[in-house]
Amino acid sequence: MSGAFVGKVALVTGAAGGMGRATALAFAAAGAQVVAADIVTDRGEETVDAIKLDGGSACFVRTDVSSARDVEAAVAAAVANFGGLDCACNAAAIETETTLLADCDEATFDRLMAVNLKSIFLCLKYEIRAMLERGGGAIVNIASTNSFRPLPKQSVYTATKHGVVGMTKTAAIEYAGSGIRINAVAPGAIDTPMLRGAMASRGSAEADVLARLSLIGRFGQPTEIANAVLWLCSDASTYTMGHVLSVDGGYLAR
After folding, report:
1. Is the whole model's pTM more than 0.85, yes or no?
2. Could you tell me the domains of the chain?
3. Cα 59 from Cα 35, distance rounded (Å)
4. With CB atoms counted within 10 Å of each terminal CB, which end of the chain scores lower, N or C?
5. Is 251 a catalytic residue?
């Protein structure tokens, strides 16, 4: 999508690594000015350095996505530094459960809800306001195949990702008439530090995971999620709204 986002401003949360970093880099490569938001400062700044090294324009804003003040500041940075906000990808998330529901502690529940679901509410709230000022825009939330097919020992994570889909669809209905298209991507087994960490915490063998979660015997790459996000934010998808695009190696087809 070379040049597809020239003159556009994009905000990406979770931009310090994994799917968020790949998406920030892809937006920049396609010509967008990028606000990279993450709570991990050093790796977030590495993302911005990589964009600038490749000739792009970007800034980093340290952002706790569960904090209204931080999210508002990240959106404000897009307006202050680049003049507005046209596109956003809300990719920040965690997955920390290792137990059955009855053994899950309340702190884990609260943290997952804050980072995975409250963050989507906050990001949408402030991104939509900025896009209304801009006259329109496109937002992509990162959901999960868990949004449709739960896995054991992930009850709270699954609940948050169901919530992401519900919020995406409702917001799409509310703001389509204002020129703001809101969609989601549901990644499957994407080779990220979060996936590797979850596998390690559960003692899952790579071959077993691939046998269950992929029709083609490999993990997806973060760039494959970035490609889907950019398509949903581009002029190639102007009639697509309230949609959840699965990028999952065929997992949900079984």
Report:
1. yes
2. 9-248 (3.40.50.720)
3. 5
4. C
5. no
Count Cβ atoms within 10 A of the Cβ of residue 1 and give its class: 0-12 exposed, 13-18 middle, 19 or more buried: middle
Question: pLDDT at residue 117 above 80?
Answer: yes
Take residue 206 and report the two structure tokens written for it.
């790579």
Give the mean model confidence (pLDDT) for residues 145-163.
96
In the three-class reduction of DSSP (H, G, I as helix; E, B as strand; rest coil), residue 25 is classed as helix
Of 157, 175, 239, 251, the active-site residue reads 157
> Which residues are registered as beta bridge partners of 90?
13, 141
Interatomic CA distance for residues 69 and 46, integer angstroms: 24
Tell me the three state secondary structure of residue 245: strand
Q: Whole-angstrom Cα distance, residue 22 to residue 227? A: 9
Residue 202: pLDDT over 90: no
CA dist list (Å): 36 to 104, 131, 179, 202: 32, 17, 24, 31
Beta strands in the chain (DSSP E): 9-13, 33-38, 57-62, 87-90, 137-142, 180-187, 244-247
Cβ(60)–Cβ(48) under 8 Å? yes
